[in-house]
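Protocol step 6 of 9: fold each sequence in the batch and record its structure tokens directly after the sequence line. For illustration, a two-sequence batch is reproduced in full.

Sequence one:
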Amino acid sequence: MHDSKRYRSNAADCLMAAQDACRPGNRGIYLSMAASWLSLARQHEAMDHLLASWEAAKPIKNEWVLGLISDPFVSTNRR
């Protein structure tokens, strides 16, 4: 199972546990855990989207890396 799906499943389990909790303190803990799992799922999905966009981007052709022009950051004027 994909990580974000597992995180969302864990959040759903926490929500079910909160619904069944007899004590309000336990209910709050389960709700907090559910929120944390959902946050983790969103962060993981955002990272996946970012990495996918990086992989889809075309690499920048640096002519100086290829040796076609001199390095623009290195001065050739030495005194």
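Sequence two, same batch, same settings:
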Amino acid sequence: MKILAVMPSYRQPDFESKVGGGEISNRMLLEGLASLGHKVKVLTWNSGNKGSGVYNGVSVIDLGKKNASILRHVGVLLLFSSKAKEIAKKFSPDVILCCSEGLAPALKIKTVIDAPLGTFVRAFENFVNVRSFYEYGRYLLKRSIIGGYGVKDLGRSDFLLPNSEFMDRFCKSEVPFSKSTFIIYPPLDFYKMNFPEIKSVKNISMVGTSEKKGICVAEYLAERFPDITFRVLGSGKAELEFRKKIENLKFLGWIDVKDEFENKSDAVIVPSLWQEPFGRVSIEALACGCPVFVSDIGGLPETVFQQKPLIIKTGDFDSWRNTIGDFVSNPNTYIEYAKCAASNLQKFSVRVQVKKLDTAIRAVVESKSV
């Protein structure tokens, strides 16, 4: 089967800067489809200066410009759709896949290619009604350059690929017209799941420095547990300038998450204050053999398989303090809950998720031919 994917960014594992979890997931899934024998072609305008080529079985065509100025980048984006249509006509795909910001050019490709279009929905960027004023402004600017990818545009897809049960329900309630949906979780490609016994809790980690990620919860906990070092991964210099100076709250920037969870963390907290569509950090922590505590919001409870002792009321400082306090006193009790959650992680494996995506694509293509 010929699969055409429209991905604004498609960077390889050796890219030396931060790459979002959604982009990583998309790359792993497309490489998995290629490993099954499908002919996979990706159109992108940002390969991280890698350029066009075949990477892990996926043919990548980078229509961007290496080290270009902002004006040249804008020019590339304005011409992207027309170039993408030309390539698509020659390739003649059986199905088209895209992520949010690739939706507009993917829809234009559909005007010249009679193939079903599936869109990965991994965030709220398609849903204008849940944006802040700032996010809405950014959306309008991007829309003027690359085209629309709001909820009405999403409704023009033939099928949707949400990344959690929570996001599946959200899509079904918000996207106009009836769409087929197939849940494709962010795939995991590693498992340690060797939970060591904890004699005393010394380090607790979290990823994210923003308010919506719950950095205020980490500050609160650091002040209540001065003997524990709270290690925060992620950037956000402007935000960090206004953070409290708490001695045992360490901001580490972007460092290797797997090394952090496997070798330095006694636990990971995900105290998000907003509806995370899923929460890759949680399953990565469990895969590294590290217990994790999450807010009871969005898709986060799915990441710990509804293990109630690991789920804490969103924004409830007292509940977070009480649970972390109990964990400090009885760490190995919580390790048992984490082990129970981790025993289900195979559900998120690359093999399982690629197979689910392959089955979904085949079903859509076959239904179209009937």
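Proceed to step 7 once all outputs are recorded. Observation for sequence two: Residues 222 and 312 are 17 Å apart (CA to CA).
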